[in-house]
């Protein structure tokens, strides 16, 4: 990756048809924190860095469902598509068979949500292809997120796994071995479920591993090499976190990784309603500076719900990617 070149940012055109409610840990229905305001704040931070613009990816076409082949079970795709298209406005479905083990049905199906999820997956695929063709870094500003969506299940605001789609796209475009690094506060249970079924793909995760942290599986999750899971029961120091990133990236390199997808979650910062750590937004600059400077890198948006901090998080991440020190004037 040429660190002096600008990072290309892509966003899907459809970002509205998602559920406005969810079910909290106590089992009660509450307002969802996964809103359009998130992507707006993140985009402001990204474009505050000189030369960075957001490009809208054209609305998906029906045959783009092919992007999901090998990523999600055909029965799951058919179910989600059918329910999403047949529901009336205002109808919400929680209970169904496509839910992860030991995870409550917290993610509702509403009218049009499959189209939004597919558009997000298409955005990830588009950004990944550009990263390969340009041998540079790209950013897929996806909504809804995807790393809790597994081969045959949804959950945690996630319906389709955008990071897995990005990884598959890299492989389809000639990258022989692809790695996925997940830096979201929450364990990417869906991504691991998919990646471990794939050949020539690796998964590494840094996450909170307490029982209270969704999906409440991180504390007991395990994976065989070359996958590596690094869960913290208490908040790591900055040096511990960065050392863990170095360890995972080193593992990827030793196993022949040629392309990297980064599931990017900003929910590790202080005051995130779905987090619990006290990391500052400026830390994302240090994280980004750890990422490879050579070969394709595709960052895919996952969590991050502290609206007042999101712009600073994304701004610092781009500054780290471009090895830049300044942003454009407000």
UniProtKB/TrEMBL annotation:
Entry superkingdom: Bacteria
GO MF, one annotated term: histone deacetylase activity
GO BP term, pick one: epigenetic regulation of gene expression
InterPro entries in alphabetical order: HDACs, His_deacetylse_dom, His_deacetylse_dom_sf, Ureohydrolase_dom_sf
Gene3D superfamilies on file: Histone deacetylase domain
Protein's name according to its UniProt entry: Histone deacetylase domain-containing protein
A Pfam family it matches: Hist_deacetyl
Lineage, opening ranks: Bacteria, Pseudomonadati, Pseudomonadota, Gammaproteobacteria, Oceanospirillales
Record key words, sorted: Hydrolase, Metal-binding, Zinc
Family to which this protein belongs: Belongs to the histone deacetylase family.
Cofactor: Zn(2+)
Domain Histone deacetylase: 34-318
